[in-house]
């Protein structure tokens, strides 16, 4: 007869096994200050991913989402080591969500525009250091610098505009870095009490033009219903922020294509060519309305200048081998970015340097000389007289 204790242990093991089998795959790493820490504590991304039909993916942030940290701290080796630790611990992570810079400003409030410009320049430089470190470990990772929303105490439209522009400028100059603009996000959904109704204010501008830079009404902070204090959002507010990130970029990066949208390269089959053949990849897109922005990528990197629906290499060479994908950005609304499944291209084999006639003659001459030397050396050995 099975004892109650043994039965309990068996049930516990079964429950643990089921939990492990159902575990979601980590794809997003949260790095930065209290805005990431509170999102991690509330599992904002896990909830928003479930709502978006992406519940098979998960986020991590227990080690790298640290309240009160600054961009200056994250650019130092002890904090960079934490990022290294987590990327090594979770090899499936390919999206890094950054939130940093706010404490740099709050800890040293600028007195004028010149001071603000200098401080924001230093913040951007520190974020660039963090991004370079991430890409040195995970070259194909996509990194999003996620902006803040209106807080109490900062109402200067000039300063807010500067704060919205620095991430955009850095993203434009940095491979695999993207900016997410959230100024006015809470006001858009909740309104401003006694002033603006919900869903009536401008939505914060997004990729690629980021217009308007300041959504909502910059004269007011985020509404009280969306905040737990003067700076931080409620769990519901952070879930809205997570959904914004998913709609703007993460859904496409996770390989999810919104309903009704289809994007494919050729028929999706691998392409095999001989050296010197013609490589032509054609992308077919349906379900999106213009204006559309296109971008071809090879092995996770943007291909400079390849922004049409067709990519051609004629003649193709071994160096053109790799995994190709196609990005489409919908220029209206929330500007969802979607990506085709990768198509593998193999072009011949690596060619050896061509042997011209003069090179062949020189090689033959060297062979004859070397052979003659060997005969002479044998003849000179003792006993070979």
Structure, described:
The protein is an alpha/beta fold. The chain folds into two domains: 23-253, SGNH hydrolase (Rossmann fold, 3-Layer(aba) Sandwich); 262-347, Immunoglobulin-like (Sandwich), CATH 2.60.40. 39% of the residues lie in helices and 18% in strands. The protein has eleven helices and 14 strands. The strands form three sheets. Strands 7, 9, 10, 12, 13 and 14 form a six-stranded mixed sheet that branches. A five-stranded parallel sheet has the order 2-1-3-4-5, with helices on both faces. A hairpin with a 2-residue loop joins strand 9 and strand 10. The longest helix is centred in the N-terminal third of the chain and has 25 residues, at 113-137. The radius of gyration is 28 Å and the shape is globular. The termini are far apart.
Percent range for β-strand residues: 15-25%
CATH topology of the largest domain: Rossmann fold
Count of DSSP-assigned helices: 11
Any idea what the CATH architecture of the largest domain is?
Answer: 3-Layer(aba) Sandwich
Per DSSP E runs of 2 or more residues, the count of β-strands stands at: 14
What is the name of the CATH class of the largest domain? Answer: Alpha Beta
- Class computed from helices, strands and strand pairing: alpha/beta
